Amino acid sequence: MSIFEWLGESSNPGPVGRAEFGPRKRGDQTRFTVLLRAFLSFFLIGAAIWLLAEPMGIRGLSAYLYPSLGFLVYCLIAYFVHPEPDESNMGLIGGLIDHPFRYSDDHNRFLLFLMIFLMPGRFISEAAVDTCTLIGNAARKGPKKAELE
């Protein structure tokens, strides 16, 4: 933060985005979208495992422990942290240039970066939660009477 940003922000503060914590409020999902998202998320996880195994040459199963734990923590953070930048204060020329008299645009750009960084993990974790909910609902209902006879 430069002296110009500190002086400029004290006289003309800009709006700053926020971050919400907790599971996101979402509407009901159809079975098709839940299964499609589950398939895509399993494909992404499989691609990451392939990337570790094939090009990087990791063969031992114990070598997957720390990347798996890191990925689990990343997905948990992505599921529970929702950054929302204020898009009206991203800098000059739509965020391409840093505003020389504001540091609040730096906060908004960081929130934007964090939002983009967490999107894949949020997609995978929400797909996993939706899939578990779908399986739980199907198990709770049980088979129909016609199928039992």
Please describe what this structure looks like.
The protein is mainly alpha-helical and 149 residues long. It has five helices and two strands. It has helices at 3-11, 31-53, 65-80, 104-141, 145-148, and strands spanning 18-21, 81-84. The longest helix has 38 residues, at 104-141. The model has no long low-confidence stretch (mean pLDDT 78).
Question: Approximately what portion of the residues adopt beta-strand conformation?
Answer: 5-15%
Estimate the mean pLDDT confidence.
78
Radius of gyration: 22 Å
Inertia-based shape = flat
Main β-sheet description: 2 strands, antiparallel
| Unreliable runs | none
Structural class of the helix and strand makeup?
A: mainly alpha
Give the CA-CA distance, first to last residue: 73 Å
Order of helices and strands: HEHHEHH
β-strand number: 2
Helix amount: 55-70%
How are strands sequenced across the largest beta sheet? Answer: 1-2
Number of helices: 5
Secondary-structure map:
Blueprint: H1 3-11, E1 18-21, H2 31-53, H3 65-80, E2 81-84, H4 104-141, H5 145-148
Helix pairs in contact: 2-4, 3-4
Briefly summarize what is shown.
By secondary structure, this protein is mainly alpha-helical. It is built from five helices and two strands; from the N terminus they run αβααβαα. A two-stranded antiparallel ribbon has the order 1-2.
